[in-house]
Amino acid sequence: MATVTDPRRRMVRRQIAGRGVTDRRVLAAMEKVPREAFLPDAMQEFAYEDTPLPIEEGQTISQPYIVARMVEAADVGAVDRVLEIGAGSGYAAAVLGELAGRVFTIERHPALADLARARLGQLGYDNVEVRTGDGTLGWPEEAPFDAIIATAGGPRVPEAWRAQLAVEGRLVMPVGETPTRQRLIRLTRTGPETWHEEEIEEVRFVPLIGQQGWPEEHEDFRRAPRREPRPISGLHQLIRAAEQPLPNLEDPTFASAFDRYGDRRVVLLGEASHGTSEFYRARAAITQRLIERHGFSFVAVEADWPDALTIDRYVRHLPARPGARPAFRRFPTWMWRNTDVDAFVEWLRGHNERQLAERRAGFFGLDIYSLADSIAAVLAYLDTVDSAAAKVARERYGCLTPWQHDPAVYGRAVLSERYRACEADMVAALRDLLAKRLEYAAHDGEQFFDAAQNARLAAAAERYYRAMYYGSAESWNMRDRHMFDTLQHLLAHRGEGARAVVWAHNSHIGDARFTDMGRVRGELNLGELCRARFGEEAALIGFGTHAGTVTAASDWDGEMEVKEVRPSREDSVEHQFHAAGVPRAVLHLDVPGELRRRLRSPRLERFIGVIYRPETELQSHYAEVELPSQFDAYVWFDRTAAVTPLPTVQRPGVPETYPFGL
User: Residue 437: CB partners within 8 Å, gap ≥ 6?
Assistant: First the structure.
């Protein structure tokens, strides 16, 4: 049998117990069974996501919650004999094997039955027997059964199952008049010819194919989406009537639709992918207007502090930091090193040239990944202002030296006593720097602020990489808290009245409380923290698209590719906007009445980062959201195109101070 892991505990706590499953034996069984062992290799990284997953033979493994819900409803005892219909990968049978005396499971696909048998055997479930056959006929030679559970939906309870259920036995199955929509029922046999039926909840399962189920022609329904698409009649018309069409991005009036956010303290501009040109160009146009017309002070982006500082010094006409290297040379280089960012940087430099130095708009990074560069920047700064302090800082940062250029493996090292002092050393280095704030700032306030922020980043990065090793939501939360803290430091540093535009992914700027991130995975984000701190002075603006191309990789540190974006799913937010038929639009989500009510119904939303895997798009890139609570506005581009990366060689005639030069 298997051991318990943290991801499984979190799955049980949030997805199962958090939804009302209370049977302690069921929760313990769900904690113990390794779901990844019952998945194809390509799906194992999604094992503890709150969703069904594809398995071999075009079938699916059920959502963890529904497995637990059905097993709890069956009230399986320690000596019970249980019949399961639809072995699939063997996962639910393993859960039952933890609870029952004997489990008999039937699978109609021979290849799946063989896989389930092998997986259950490898994990030591010798109380589970697998058979290939028509599950609607049951397993008469092993009857009667104390419980029967079916993971496929039929038009009625098969008579064979009724006959094979013991008196006081419980049968749990989906039943529906069509193969695509069912209600989950529990049927209890109260006597030889008497039954008590209860309805549990509405569900969606693959059809029960067999002699006493649906005929073979219904098998294609197994490839339908994970949930019945919600009725869309009328919703896209409501969206079309309420949204504001936008002109071409080249039109100088494009960003005028966003003037209503010109009085906010913070305007957060999202993106549905890290590789879509329209998202970058739209954010640039909106930001230009907020800076020119409304006096915003700086743009803060989902990028590393040292890289962004190279650009900041360029756009504010400040001397390059000594030893600074060209910006954004780490994977994913195209995220900020592209022609759209280049155009915005040049605009910002030109705009600032006409401003007094103290009124020039800055460009700063909020992210946490630049451990080596940040340490180097702190040491370089101290070398210029306090050589004795630089020596002490080098000693303190020394414990991280082996991992500065590969910090993702640092978390494993802190399990040993030798490296547990690193956190204290990072904090001490920051404390020493801040203790001499007045003395150092007298030399150059901007350089001191840069050094202090790099020291903060090094301390935060040490905690982040340590947490990342355990794979918990806390590493995500640390990252977004750091981004929020950096934003607050920037606002304070720029003085009273400072206002910020933030560029980050929708997953960071949309309020996590109204997505699966917060409700299921226990994650918070920058948008949620900004709403809590700034209230109505924060505007959260999301972006979306239906189809087109995107610049992305298939794996971390993989080759950059231009990929086709699949058309949005019918049960998604994006599909509703696509059906509205407007190529470019913004919907301000303070809409009243029926439209707001309909939009608050949870729907899927697509999230593409630097990785895009179309073949696993539902599991990899969709999550459920409540759109009008997630964002204050939603910007729509029906078709979009991939960003164009900048060349990796220095262009002729470009000055040495140019931030993207090599």
Answer: 448, 452
Domain spans in the chain, listed from the N-terminal domain onward: 6-223, 235-367+474-640
Confidence of residue 384 (pLDDT cuts 50, 70, 90): low
pLDDT by residue (tens digit) across 436-473?
A: 555 554 555 566 666 666 666 555 555 555 554 444 56
Measure the CA–CA gap between 227 and 571, rounded to whole angstroms: 8
**3-class secondary structure for 74-125?**
HCCCCCCEEEEECCCCCHHHHHHHHHCCEEEEEECCHHHHHHHHHHHHHCCC
- Predicted local distance difference test score (pLDDT) of residue 411: 42
Average pLDDT score over the chain = 83
What is the per-residue DSSP string for 211-273? TTSB-GGGGGGGGS-SSPPPP-TTHHHHHHHHSEE---TTSTTGGGGGGGGTT-SEEEE--S-
The pTM (predicted TM-score) of the whole model is 0.66
* Mean pLDDT value across residues 572-587: 95
Phi and psi for 439 in degrees, rounded to 5? Answer: -65, -45
CB 568 within 8 A of CB 574: yes
pLDDT value at 548 more than 80: yes
Mean pLDDT of 256-260: 94
Q: Which residue is catalytic, options 62, 89, 277, 475? A: 62
Overall average pLDDT of the 98-102 stretch: 96
Nearest of 330, 281, 347 to residue 503 by alpha carbon: 281
What are the structure tokens assigned to 338, written together?
A: 């592209």
Intrachain domains 6-223 and 235-367+474-640 with the same fold: no
* DSSP secondary structure code for residue 183 in this structure: E
* Beta partners for residue 84, in sequence order: 105, 149
Q: What residues does 635 pair with on adjacent strands?
A: 543, 586
Q: How would you classify the pairing of strands 561-565 and 603-606? A: unpaired
Per 3-state DSSP, the chain is made up of helix, strand and coil in percentages (nearest 5) of 45, 20, 30
Cα–Cα distance, 636 to 572 (Å, whole number): 14
Can you tell me the mean pLDDT for 559-575?
94
Task: Report how far residue 586's alpha carbon sits from residue 635's, in angstroms, rounded to the nearest whole number.
Answer: 4
Structure tokens at 337: 């090193």
For residue 313, CA distances in Å to 118, 309, 320, 657 come to 61, 6, 6, 9
> Is 62 one of the annotated active-site residues of the chain?
yes
Contact 410, 466 (CB under 8 A): yes
Identify the CATH class of 235-367+474-640: alpha beta
* CA torsion angle 306 308 313 319 (round to 10): 30
> d(Cα 125, Cα 91) in Å, to the nearest integer?
11
Collapsing DSSP states into helix, strand and coil, what is residue 369? coil
Rounded to 10 degrees, the C-alpha dihedral 345/350/354/357 comes to 40
Q: Specify the length of the chain in residues.
A: 662
Percent of the chain exceeding pLDDT 70 equals 77
pLDDT, tens digit, 9 for 90 and up, residues 296-354: 999 999 988 888 988 998 999 998 876 666 778 778 899 999 999 999 999 999 999 99
Expressed in angstroms, the distance from the first to the final Cα of the chain is 55
From residue 635, alpha-carbon distances to 131, 352, 479, 585, 607 in Å are: 53, 28, 26, 6, 15
Predicted pLDDT at 217: 56
Q: Are 214 and 156 spatial neighbours (Cβ–Cβ below 8 Å)?
A: no
Q: Which secondary-structure segment (H or E) carries 384?
A: helix 371-385
What pLDDT does 221 receive?
Answer: 42
Domain 6-223 has CATH 3.30.360.10: no
